[in-house]
């Protein structure tokens, strides 16, 4: 597809703003008849995004992306009053929680594959931020997911997918809003959002988001607070040169709900799970806090070399610090509930990512074939110091919890530093043969070094990607793709015998065929079949986290998003997955489903904007996750569950200011369920929660 960078240079800052309540201009009527005034409300934005920023598909139409991609727009986030990553990503197929139930941050798996917390989460398509603290959504315009292997652009990452968070920026219309939100447990937030453009030619832009709040999720022995300060600047220095700077700092200090450890197998090799505790139960003490803060800085320069060629330079740094007192309930008696609460002390943990990118991109026209090329280099260094102060154990009861007296770390903090260096060159060529056919070829040459105090791994490899796309008619694309990528195999968790050990990197491969189409008033439909092979991990008899051959993930994924009519919008997804481990040398896991991997997931959220009541919209959502094995041996499964959300929001004008009132109830039926499994841990889903919001735009 031919593009002109001279035109793009004048539109590097995206403009997103809420539209006011609209009044139609009265028409002149015959004498003696009264004027008719029709007033109606139309929410800004859409449930469908017209562009995808993530990866090499920079601001491309979703129809031009030969992989499954999902975008959760600001309009969806607002309609659901979503404020967490899982709250956003539950709208996309195959998303589950892993290991943790989300009381502190969202540890997420997609298609049964863990989304690595230091490499798979990106800010504005580039900077790898560290998902070890709840990433705020209040300053984000949308959340994107590029499913599957993404090593061409992002280096060593698992093929679960890239989660990209796009920040709000100043648009052509001024933005000033103040929002108050609360839940019926006592949690509350105040959020200010201000955006302006300045200068004689509006060449300067600034968007500021500030938030402060008290945290309460309806769980016993839980309290805390969180805050956010974020700014997004941009400067169109000339027709050819522009700059962007994003800075965000956020913190969260809350009590951490205890996880429940899966019991040892019975004599027959099966595992008996406990009854699901009350959702408000917390076996940990309120003093067992998870205190974390994060700072992310990303600077970008774009320079237009000619009508057809451009250059971008990016530099970013992400830093997260946390002080954690994590606990797991273990060795319990199913009849009496008596067991042990093991408390792990992890003080002053430090995580840093430094990321640099230089890329030249452009268009080469031709009579029979044209080329859109990207050639770039990335350098990423990830440093961490996962200090440990040991653990203590105290008595606790699953059915009748007692107050946990405050404990101190049994030992001085140990230092467990590690460094990962991931550098690589990449080349991507999108060849267009007329209007209907496209061939995409790419390759990445990577250099990877992973080092701890006791281990060091190095890898050098070249990984290809190829895709072909056919557009039989306008608004429809059919594609097939093959991708390879090197990935980190993971790090042993704190409760394993080899805690902190980094496993060697390994190769993953992905094949995908799919079709995308735009129908109705702008609904994007997607259907894809994928086949992923990747390294598998397991826990051996010595409680060590180790590699376990390959696992294969094959499935069909469906998605729909957009406006069905002027008044009805929806976003939905479904996944039908067949996943199995294929290490014949390990009979205990051969042919079994990887832990925490559901065969089925589905979601559907719809909002109806009542034409008879201007400004009023009613919404409902259903979210289903199928049963999942608790371990790689499939010795027990947690049951599937479905949760229901209902909501209503009304926009009007008070004293000339657009004002929105909203109420949302999540888990309407107060479903009791295991929300998470994986790595030998279980977590309970959140109880019914009523959220209220009032927002005024000035």
UniProtKB/TrEMBL annotation:
Claim: Membrane is one of the keywords in the record: yes
Pfam families tied to this protein: Plug (PF07715), TonB_dep_Rec_b-barrel (PF00593)
Signal sequence, renumbered to the chain: 1-23
Topology within the bilayer: Multi-pass membrane protein
Motif TonB C-terminal box positions after renumbering to this chain: 681-698
Gene Ontology biological process terms in this record: siderophore transport
One of the record's GO cellular component terms: cell outer membrane
Domain of life: Bacteria
Annotated CDD domains: ligand_gated_channel
Domain TonB-dependent receptor plug per the UniProt entry, residue ranges: 63-159
Chief localisation class: membrane
Keyword annotations from UniProtKB, A to Z: Cell outer membrane, Ion transport, Iron, Iron transport, Membrane, Receptor, Signal, TonB box, Transmembrane, Transmembrane beta strand, Transport
Domain TonB-dependent receptor-like beta-barrel: 278-668
InterPro entries noted in UniProt: Beta-barrel_TonB, Beta-barrel_TonB_sf, Plug_dom, Plug_dom_sf, TonB-dep_rcpt-like, TonB_rcpt_CS, TonB_sidphr_rcpt
Subcellular location: Cell outer membrane
GO molecular function: siderophore uptake transmembrane transporter activity; signaling receptor activity
UniProt record similarity statement: Belongs to the TonB-dependent receptor family.
The protein's name in its UniProt record: TonB-dependent siderophore receptor
